[in-house]
């Protein structure tokens, strides 16, 4: 503000006064910029060097080939009705209109969101419970780590195959047990609810370990004296968890939630193997529907518009993810 | 703390262990039974043990060649991603440059983007440039999500190495490339191993893109597994055997990366 | 670079959009050269610099357009105006 009074004043004319004000504002802004930059340098020891671009160039080129060019092509697809490369018609935003109003697409969107929400609600508490139960030291640490991590390293289509077999009422232990031991009618190839439950159970089986491992990494960073102090105070297990462990888990759990959301939002392979999107449309999530339109029917236009809308949704979540990551990192 | 673990913790672990292993063991059990037994009557323990399914897998060229295809393109992809990502990760961890933050974010969006979005253009591009149905084609396509992954993981590891080392080496007269190869790379051995592993793994598990841009010569094992339905129905025993065999590569190296799994999956942020 | 670009099925409008985006990026780069961007906090409550606000603005504009086309039959020019307004608001005060 002192900048304003220091500005060359004295012009009688209001307009030049205004201009001077604006110039002074800009000068103040630039000074703030310089200060901010200095502060930044103190907080961030990395050297400023634009030649680092040379080191990044290979990545930029390779990802441009695999991401930018395809994305441009998708944009081109989305505004045309294409019969063949030579025979096509510009239709403007028509595909966006029809895709965004297609009840099937909307249903798949809601279904995917619902699935992601259920996945988070089940996997986060289960994963934390598991992490708290894992030993902090001793010979069992490595064994439990390896066992817990096992499902994460199984190819996704094999996870599908495992559950495809396991949940079948005729040849699978799980499906057989539900039918004959619990006495419930259960057949995921015929019943929509059963199919949904199977896919959900499979996802929980597959990805809870990720939450557990992240939470475990967070728990291990808590120094032992904290626990000793809690023990001396006679704190219950719940109190220890609530007041010592949970607060320390905020960072890793945010990462876990966002990762699980992103990955469940684009889930494809596992439900494709188990149910193929069925019965009916019961488990056809966005990716499954999209690849059906794209590869199955080869509808370039609608698939392009669909892809872009899908991509937009992912971009938004991704930006939130990035903002959270870079801020918790500091 | 010692041995004062509460019994409920042990209960949770045991319960989890059982739910974890049951489906896996069940699939293994399927793979060592003849098909008549699988469909004939339900039994918990296999009545007759046979390795026919595995023999079929290794003698039928459709199966073993697609297994080899997967191994070839995932290995190529892991090496290519690593080579491209190493200098970039170093740049991100050591320098500030115009647009670095935005570039880093752009890489992340490619890791997070649903592969389904890129299906059609990939199909078109790879046919146009003659990479359709080749190992190199799949390896390049998988760089879409593996290069960003590698950059993020490596950057996480490299940021943990003090910058003073770079400066000391510079004072000692090392040029950047020489320093990078002779001093820096040996220091981040474990990071390189972990990155290779995760690139290998994410390429190994990917089905959608690999299936779309291949037909015969480079067809991945995952695609072969989804096409086991014949006139006689699904060959469950063979499918289970293939499943068991595709778990093997991951299961072999899991011990070596056990302490880094969380780091790899969280893009190097834990 | 690539043998033939017919498969990319370019059209005038999409080419114009991408050239526009490219110019915008170049412009931002030049602007950053002249006066380096400053991070500050606006009504979005997170620290953003110019580039961030441009990105958020573009994404929000896209959301406005997508939402518009999904629910109303009103003219898309009106939607474009709204989207532009949103992007501008975020760019200036976000």
From TrEMBL, chain A:
Keywords: Membrane, Transmembrane, Transmembrane helix, Transport. It is a multi-pass membrane protein. The keyword Cell cycle does not apply. InterPro entries: MetI-like, MetI-like_sf, Sugar_ABC_transporter. SUPFAM superfamilies: MetI-like. Belongs to the binding-protein-dependent transport system permease family. This is ABC transporter permease.
TrEMBL record, chain B:
Residues 67-257 form the ABC transmembrane type-1 domain. The keyword Ribonucleoprotein does not apply. Coiled coil: none annotated. Its main location: membrane. It is a multi-pass membrane protein. The chain crosses the membrane at residues 12-32, 71-92, 104-126, 138-158, 179-205, 236-257. Belongs to the binding-protein-dependent transport system permease family. This is Sugar ABC transporter permease. It comes from Nonomuraea glycinis.
UniProtKB/TrEMBL annotation, chain C:
Pfam families: DUF2160. Keywords: Membrane, Transmembrane, Transmembrane helix. This is Membrane protein. The chain crosses the membrane at residues 12-32, 53-70, 76-93.
């Amino acid at each position: 503000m002192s900048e304003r009074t220091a500005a060359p004043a004295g012009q009688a004319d209001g307009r030049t006064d205004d201009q001077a004000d604006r110039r002074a504002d800009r000068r103040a802004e630039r000074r703030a910029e310089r200060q901010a930059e200095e502060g930044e340098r103190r907080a961030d020891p990395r050297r400023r060097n634009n030649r680092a671009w040379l080191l990044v160039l290979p990545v930029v080129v390779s990802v441009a080939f695999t991401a930018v060019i395809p994305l441009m092509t998708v944009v081109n697809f989305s505004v045309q009705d294409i019969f063949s490369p030579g025979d096509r018609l510009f239709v403007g935003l028509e595909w966006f209109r029809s895709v965004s109003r297609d009840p099937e697409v909307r249903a798949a969107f809601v279904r995917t969101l619902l699935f992601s929400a259920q996945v988070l609600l089940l996997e986060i508490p289960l994963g934390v419970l598991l992490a708290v139960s894992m030993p902090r030291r001793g010979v069992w640490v490595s064994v439990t780590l390896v066992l817990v991590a096992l499902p994460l390293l199984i190819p996704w289509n094999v996870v599908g195959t495992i559950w495809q077999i396991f949940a079948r009422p005729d040849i699978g232990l799980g499906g057989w047990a539900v039918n004959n031991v619990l006495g419930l009618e259960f057949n995921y190839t015929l019943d929509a609810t059963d199919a949904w439950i199977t896919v959900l159970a499979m996802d929980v089986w597959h990805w809870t370990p990720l939450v557990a491992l992240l939470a475990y990494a967070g728990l291990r960073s808590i120094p032992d004296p904290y626990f000793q102090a809690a023990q001396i105070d006679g704190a219950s297990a719940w109190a220890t968890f609530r007041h010592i462990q949970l607060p320390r888990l905020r960072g890793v759990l945010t990462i876990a939630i966002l990762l699980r959301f992103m990955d469940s939002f684009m889930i494809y392979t596992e439900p494709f193997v188990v149910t193929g999107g069925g019965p009916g449309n019961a488990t056809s999530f966005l990716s499954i529907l999209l690849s059906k339109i794209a590869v199955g029917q080869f509808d370039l236009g609608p698939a392009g518009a669909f892809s872009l809308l899908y991509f937009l949704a992912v971009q938004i979540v991704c930006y939130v993810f990035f903002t959270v990551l870079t801020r918790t990192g500091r | 703390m010692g041995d004062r673990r509460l019994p409920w913790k042990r209960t949770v672990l045991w319960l989890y262990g059982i739910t974890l292993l049951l489906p896996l063991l069940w699939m293994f059990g399927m793979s060592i039974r003849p098909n008549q037994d699988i469909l004939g009557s339900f039994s918990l323990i296999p009545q007759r043990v046979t390795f026919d399914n595995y023999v079929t897998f290794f003698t039928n060229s459709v199966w073993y060649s697609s297994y080899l295809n997967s191994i070839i393109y995932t290995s190529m992809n892991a090496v290519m991603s690593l080579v491209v990502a190493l200098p970039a990760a170093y740049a991100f961890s050591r320098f500030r440059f115009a647009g670095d933050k935005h570039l880093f974010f752009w890489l992340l969006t490619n890791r997070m983007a649903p592969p389904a979005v890129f299906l059609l253009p990939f199909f078109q591009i790879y046919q146009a440039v003659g990479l359709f149905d080749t190992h190199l084609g799949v390896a390049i396509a998988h760089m879409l999500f593996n290069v960003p992954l590698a950059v993020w993981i490596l950057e996480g590891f490299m940021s943990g190495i003090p910058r003073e080392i770079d400066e000391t080496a510079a004072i000692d007269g090392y040029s950047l490339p020489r320093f990078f190869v002779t001093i820096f790379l040996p220091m981040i051995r474990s990071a390189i191993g972990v990155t290779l592993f995760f690139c290998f793994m994410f390429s190994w598990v990917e089905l959608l893109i690999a299936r779309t841009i291949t037909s015969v010569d480079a067809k991945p094992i995952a695609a072969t597994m989804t096409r086991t339905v014949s006139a006689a129905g699904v060959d469950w025993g063979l499918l289970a055997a293939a499943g068991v065999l595709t778990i093997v590569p991951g299961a072999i190296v899991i011990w070596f990366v056990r302490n880094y799994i969380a780091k790899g999956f969280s893009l190097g942020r834990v | 670079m690539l043998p033939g670009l017919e498969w990319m099925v370019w059209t005038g409008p999409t080419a114009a959009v991408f050239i526009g985006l490219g110019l915008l990026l170049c412009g931002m780069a030049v602007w950053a050269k002249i006066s380096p961007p400053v991070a500050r906090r606006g009504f979005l409550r997170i620290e953003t610099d110019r580039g961030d606000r441009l990105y958020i603005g573009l994404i929000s504009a896209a959301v406005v357009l997508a939402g518009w086309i999904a629910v109303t039959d009103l003219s898309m020019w009106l939607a474009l105006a709204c989207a532009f307004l949103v992007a501008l608001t975020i760019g200036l005060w976000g």
